[in-house]
Design brief:
This protein is of the alpha/beta class. It is 40% helix and 14% strand. The protein is built from 20 helices and 14 strands. It has a 6-stranded mixed beta sheet, covered by helices on one side. The chain has a 5-stranded antiparallel beta sheet with strand order 2-1-5-4-3, with helices on both faces. Strands 6-7-8 form a 3-stranded mixed beta sheet. It starts with 12 loop residues before the first helix and ends with a helix.
């Protein structure tokens, strides 16, 4: 905040008072549970849909619950097509999978504001998706001679902004079978259960009652040590009521997904890190969606910033946009099952073709990297079809480790933990030099003055960053050799770097604002106002009020006592003004 010189001649006092910040409703505190009906439900889920099959109309949304939940016609159409497997998948019985669709524009609600507050402490890859819905699907197809088609086909779809894949799939396992047996009253009861849940606040262990059982979960925080167990066992008496304790809300079975292609996990990590266009061709939506989600999380704790569609069909509203040959394929990961895509996406540079996933313990036949021209139909052999040359040499150590686990019939959970740790260490080795360099762009704290605007961050220089790699590069933490410089140069052009850097820039800018506020709190403002005119003092009050509002609104990293101290400064300055000015300032702006 620059306390610029304002004179009575330069600006009229009445005009200045018109700029008094009006009282604002601050966003709901994360600690305050919403109290209106369906607010608690909306903190977790947008709505639950039932999609059935009509012989004349095809797929149709039969029920949306709660009834007041809003979906555009485009969203309903997408949900209809994405809630059923392609006919070639042959999914008999019960199948679970997930899809992701764009949210219609200009539909931000008060519930979005609540979610902003709840997940501000979550890791970046677990924050709510501001522009998309996740659709978690429980599909049932069984023979029924009483129906003309000969089959009962229906899906229960849970729509949410939250990427809690493991948790919502588990929740549907509890709700869907009951719904298919008892119909709508069961769905209403389940939704009423959800509307009694505490908000999804990271770091807290939550007991969530539903369908007569209690599910215990913990949402990770950004401060958690990566790879740490999320559920903390306790001797609390309430634990005796817990039916299920989920060890993770979001992690998929990495080993199951990467088992046939684990010889190439490092190349796949590079492709995902660089935001390369990637297609997963799978026999079913379950395998397609699980593999795409595994790809996205292999660069954790980085957030994958490009688009990804765990299950994508020819009816998708973005089908033309993503399959056109008139321009280069976009930075997106698509999961598909329809054989039509083998020809439609043949021009894409990287395609992973997977077969039926084998049960844990079976020794998979490892697929080779093949040329794209060999991929003609979806019946082609499983493999990684690409001409991509990796920047880094292959890590034989991880391959031996996974192979040994297969031979020893190590549990899938343990194999997944090995792969997850491998990806984590690889990503951290890559990102630490960038973190170190970006931290150096922050101005020194001694350059922050209460009487001047906060200093600017230094601009990012690619060449300056490259110079730091010689002494402080990934070789300090990684055993891998190769063209790290080339990998960094390619990464700096990617959407993942853009998203990461924007996030870091915002964090550092907010940190600067917080440090500036602390400097203001430590300054003797009462001495300053004695040397300045009433107009200048009023201007100071307005700016301090605005900063206080922004600090609360944007959750700046400040201690509560700093905000309280700033509030006292404002009140003390107002009390130093004539009574008529005091009453106007107190009337028009909250202090």
């Amino acid at each position: 905040m620059a306390l610029r010189t304002v004179t009575a001649d330069g600006e009229d006092l009445d005009e200045l008072l018109q700029r008094v910040i009006p009282g604002k409703d601050y966003p709901c505190s994360a600690d305050r549970s919403p109290s209106l009906p369906w607010d608690r439900f909306a903190a977790w889920v947008h709505c639950i849909c039932v999609v059935g099959f009509d012989l004349e109309l095809g797929q149709a949304v039969e029920i949306i619950y709660p009834p007041h939940a809003k979906l555009s016609d485009k969203e309903k159409t997408s949900i209809c097509y994405l809630s059923f497997p392609d006919s070639n998948s042959g999914c008999l019985g019960d199948t679970q999978f997930c899809f992701r669709i764009r949210q219609s524009a200009n539909r931000r609600s008060s519930h979005d504001c609540l979610l902003d507050q709840y997940d501000r402490d979550a890791p970046v890859y677990l924050k709510k998706d501001s522009a998309h819905y996740y659709g978690y699907v429980y599909f049932r197809q069984v023979r029924d001679k009483t129906l003309k088609r000969g089959y009962f086909q229906k899906s229960l779809v849970l729509l949410s902004k939250l990427p809690y894949v493991n948790f919502f799939h588990f929740l549907l396992k509890l709700i869907a079978p009951e719904y298919f047996d008892k119909n709508e009253p069961c769905l209403e009861a389940a939704c009423n259960d959800l509307d009694r849940w505490p908000p999804p606040i990271p770091g807290r262990t939550l007991n969530l009652p539903t369908m007569g059982v209690v599910v215990k979960v913990r949402i990770p925080t950004g401060q958690d040590k990566p790879g740490a167990t999320q559920i903390v066992q306790s001797g609390d008496e309430t634990d005796t009521q817990v039916s299920f304790a989920l060890p993770t809300i979001h992690e998929v079975d990495l080993f199951r997904c990467f088992c046939p292609i684990f010889f190439h996990v490092q190349m796949i990590w590079e492709l995902v890190l660089l935001g390369e266009p990637l297609v997963v061709m799978a026999p079913s939506p379950a395998e397609s969606s699980e593999t795409v989600l595994a790809l996205v999380c292999c660069v954790s704790p980085l957030k994958y910033c490009s688009d990804f569609r765990p299950y994508f069909t020819i009816h998708d509203s973005e089908f033309k946009e993503y399959t056109t040959r008139t321009q280069a394929p976009p930075s997106v990961i698509l999961g598909v099952t329809n054989p039509f895509f083998a020809k439609t996406l043949q021009h894409w540079p990287h395609i992973i073709r997977i077969g039926d996933m084998k049960p844990a313990g079976d020794i998979p036949k490892q697929v080779k990297v093949k040329k794209l021209k060999n991929l003609k139909t979806l019946d082609s052999k499983p493999g990684v079809y690409t001409s991509y040359k990796t920047f880094l040499s292959r890590d034989e150590e991880i391959i031996k480790q996974v192979q040994k686990g297969i031979q020893q019939k190590r549990p899938s959970e343990a194999q997944s933990a090995i792969l997850r740790r491998y990806f984590l260490e690889l990503t951290q080795s890559f990102i630490i030099p960038l973190e170190r360099y970006v931290a150096s762009l922050m101005p020194l704290q001694k350059s922050i003055s209460p009487w001047k605007s906060p200093p600017q961050l230094k601009p990012f220089s690619e060449e300056e960053f490259m110079k730091t790699l010689e002494k402080a590069g990934p070789q300090l933490t990684s055993r891998l050799k190769g063209d790290w410089i080339g990998l960094y140069r390619q990464f700096l052009k990617s959407p993942n770097f853009d998203g990461w850097f924007r996030s870091r820039w915002k964090e550092m800018t907010q940190k600067l604002e917080a440090l500036h506020l602390e400097a203001l709190c430590d300054a003797d403002l009462l001495i300053w106002i004695q040397k300045h005119t009433e107009v200048e003092v009023v201007d100071l009050v307005l700016k301090l009020k605005e900063k206080l509002v922004q600090a609360k609104q944007y959750c700046l990293p400040l201690k509560q006592d700093t905000l309280e101290k700033l509030q006292l400064h404002i009140e003390a300055i107002i009390c130093s003004l004539p009574e008529d000015l005091q009453s106007i300032l107190l009337k028009n702006g909250t202090t």
